[in-house]
Amino acid sequence: MTEQPPDAARAERVSAMPDGSTLRLALVVGGLILAVLLGFGLGRLGAGDAARAVGYDSALADHAHAPGTGAHDHGADQGLAAQATGLSVSAGGYTVVPSTVDFAAGRPAELRFQIRDAQRRPVTRFAVVHDKPMHVIVVRRDLTGYQHLHPTMAADGTWSVPLTLPRPGVWRAYADFTALADDGRQTAVTLGTDLVAAGDYQPRALPAAATATTVDGFAVDYQGNPQAGLSVPLTFRIGTDGGTAPLERYLGAYGHLVALREGDLGYLHVHPEPDLVDGTVRFWLTVPGSGRYRLYLDFQVAGVVRTAEFTVDVR
Ligand SMILES: [Cu+2]
To answer: What CA–CA distance (Å, rounded) separates 284 from 295?
Structure first.
């Protein structure tokens, strides 16, 4: 006996009944009503919702960029960009599997992990995005101790990078990558896993919101007003000796900006413009909702990368 799809089997049973024609009519009418209701429901979804509902992978696929291009053009996927990531060890069919999550505070160690696919196989093919196939961000639960690392991959797909967690506490490590599937499909994912440094955790309060700060003698400030659900430009100026510091490209762009959300450490992608604007570096940031966020701007001057941090209060 050949297998039939459930619908065909049901239709056959129905037509075998004495008053099959009446039932068939009822089924056809019911199906029409269902189709109308479904169409109505889909029509009510916003553009971003529709992209999430149907085209998640394809919408993300254009997130990968050729080596060194740095810039992003994401006019069409701001619904996606508005979602915080890095909240889960699994997303998009990929899972981060750390070798160990236990670290001794202040002692140099190594962070090692694999990315596994839905069949639990280690992933070994990644697209180069911002000059690197893998970006790792590490930060403590209170949003202090930010580190931006680039691990190297062994042939078996194990990534490793030296890591010191300087103070006790629970830390979050984010793996930000674009996986290449066998069929060439690209999936941009940020996965998050907690790391632990046992000891006396003394959390620090998040600094008050400010648009200016100083790091190693560089005065860094930004203009722009982040708003929930909107892609908003943030323009950073790095000042030195009364002028604008000569920024150098770092990882294919004049700056790298990461935004993390207070409360759940949600990770936001931020997209830089490729060129300086009057000596400033501009990003487009979409925050998914009100709340406080910590911004981390990596910039390079005279071959040295520094990080400027800001608290943003989005109402
Ligand atoms: Cu990176």
So the answer is: 13
Measure 150 CA to ligand 1 centroid, in angstroms.
6
Residues with C-beta atoms within 5 A of ion ligand 1: 135
pTM: 0.75
What type of residue is 213? T
The answer to whether the CB of 250 falls within 8 A of the CB of 300 is yes
Condensed to tens digits (0 to 9), the pLDDT of residues 228-248 reads 989 999 999 999 988 999 999
8 Å CB contact between 129 and 64: yes
In contact, 94 and 187? CB cutoff 8 Å? yes
> Strand 102-104 relative to strand 186-198: parallel, antiparallel, unpaired?
parallel
What is the tens place of the pLDDT at every residue in 247-256?
999 988 899 9
134 Cα–ligand 1 center, Å: 7
In the predicted model, is pLDDT for residue 20 greater than 80?
A: no
Distance between Cα 28 and ligand 1 center (Å): 56
Phi, psi angle pair for 119, to nearest 5°: -95, 10
Which secondary-structure segment (H or E) carries 163?
A: strand 158-163
User: What residues contact residue 67 under an 8 Å CB cut-off, 6+ apart?
Assistant: 128, 131, 252
**CA distances to 96, 160, 200, 216, 308 from 126, in Å:** 14, 15, 38, 35, 29
In the structure encoding, which two tokens stand for residue 241, read together?
Answer: 């000796």
Which of helix, strand or coil describes residue 164?
coil
